[in-house]
């Protein structure tokens, strides 16, 4: 029975031997220790890869998989298990749970919109993801409002712009009349999924409150395969960085070929495999459609919200301007009140 289960999950002789020995000389504790050692070896192996020169790190990943004696599918499963294992688990005791919840609550960078953690921002090509990210960066560096409504807390922003060249980005900034606080923003034009040491160095140097990657698809080399172990490891490590460094990370991403012709996105329209969504704290879908008056309406919907900054299923509606390529908040879908009125209601309820 144990052997059959092993073949379904791993098809690996080393792990199979561990499981088969449970009924023999080994105990459950021995099995748990053996499995736990794999995750520990994964972390130690990643530290070893970081010490290598940049051009050798890709080979290092192959060697690490070899060292762990895992096939590619097994290696990916180990990474996905490690992602889930590293997520902080709430205590069972009620009093300790309440303390844990209060400690876990962090001030969002943009209340009701963007919190600390890893945010996957998915949309079709040409929808304006990059422009939205520039607006978010502008609001945070100046301590202003995103989309005229969402008040941002002032901070620093690090942008990895990989989808646009500097000339293309400069033209967009001119059209948008973009005016971030130049002393609080830094733009990098290259990044590879093995460049974690360089990322950590920049974070240590700049101490950004927000890091933007535009886009994941480009970082992955123009393709994301379910068998891409390097990409899964990259997301696993980004997740840990967002947690340990208390930094918000936005990753723009592309969508797959839609299941229907409606402009509205679903979670299944996001390109990638399960580890992509598992690694993310929040997942946004973003699309545009034409309104009743012929205006362009942009919708941003929350598909996942572990940070509780937005409610799952909540949709914000924005009106887009073709002239300045900016968005302007209209309302929350399904609610007639403005964001300010909603916050006023919340304050009243809190007072009562």
Share of residues in strands: 15-25%
CA gyration radius, whole angstroms: 22 Å
* Helix share, percent: 40-55%
CA-CA gap between termini: 59 Å
Count the strands?
Answer: 11
| Physical arrangement of strands within the biggest beta sheet | 5-4-6-7-1-8-9-10-11
Determine the number of helices (DSSP H or I, runs of at least 4 residues). Answer: 13
Description:
By secondary structure, the chain is of the alpha/beta class. Helix content is 43%, strand content 18%. It is built from 13 helices and 11 strands. It has helices at residues 2-9, 13-20, 28-50, 57-67, 72-86, 94-104, 129-142, 166-176, 196-206, 216-219, 229-244, 274-279, 339-351, and strands at residues 117-123, 145-146, 150-151, 157-161, 185-188, 210-214, 248-253, 282-290, 296-305, 315-320, 327-332. The strands form 2 sheets. A 9-stranded mixed β-sheet has the order 5-4-6-7-1-8-9-10-11. Residues 1-11 have low confidence and may be disordered.
Descriptive key words:
disordered N terminus; nine-stranded mixed beta sheet; alpha/beta; two-stranded antiparallel sheet; 11 strands; 13 helices; 43% helix; globular; 352 residues
Question: TL;DR of this structure?
Answer:
This protein is α/β, with parallel strands linked by helices and 352 residues long. The protein is built from 13 helices and eleven strands. Residues 1-11 have low confidence and may be disordered.
Topology:
Layout: H1 2-9, H2 13-20, H3 28-50, H4 57-67, H5 72-86, H6 94-104, E1 117-123, H7 129-142, E2 145-146, E3 150-151, E4 157-161, H8 166-176, E5 185-188, H9 196-206, E6 210-214, H10 216-219, H11 229-244, E7 248-253, H12 274-279, E8 282-290, E9 296-305, E10 315-320, E11 327-332, H13 339-351
Parallel strand pairs: 1-7, 1-8, 4-5, 4-6, 6-7
Antiparallel strand pairs: 2-3, 8-9, 9-10, 10-11
Helix pairs in contact: 1-2, 3-4, 5-11
